[in-house]
Amino acid sequence: MCLFCKIAANTIPVTRLYEDDQVLAFPDINPQAATHILIIPKQHLQSLAHTTAETAPLLGHLLATAAKIAQQQGLANGYRTVINTGPDGGQTVDHLHLHLLGGRHMGWPPG
Ligand code: 5GP
Ligand code: ZN
Q1: Is the separation of the CB atoms in 102 and 35 below 8 Å?
Q2: Mutate to test the pocket of ligand 1, among 5, 26, 30, 85 (most ligand atoms within 8 A of CB)
Q3: 67-103 confidence digits (pLDDT tens)
Q4: Is 107 exposed, middle or buried (0-12, 13-18, 19+ CB in 10 A)?
């Protein structure tokens, strides 16, 4: 089982900031901003590049969940959502996850 599958299954405990039957949100272990939350599908999807017609609606739900959590976290001044994909994208955990970053101004372009 991959790291984030273990977190989803509660084999590795985390602070569960939000969850429903499809997705789970928890703080990043190495935060890059005052707010840095990871939102994952509970089902194992390797990366955004592995999206299919079946999993596409789940990705919409993942994004909508990010917006809901950002509102709950009080990120009224804005925030950054990031999905790193593959080696060039900087993906280090091969279970699709969305980063929600806020609480400081984000630069552009990203590194
Ligand atoms: P990626 O580089 O794949 O887009 O992001 C992986 C993220 O997972 C990193 O920001 C890293 O800090 C985070 N991470 C890695 N291992 C753990 C862990 O065991 N617990 C939590 N909460 N975050 C983790
Ligand atoms: Zn997994």
Answers
A1: yes
A2: 30
A3: 999 999 999 999 999 999 999 999 999 999 999 999 9
A4: exposed
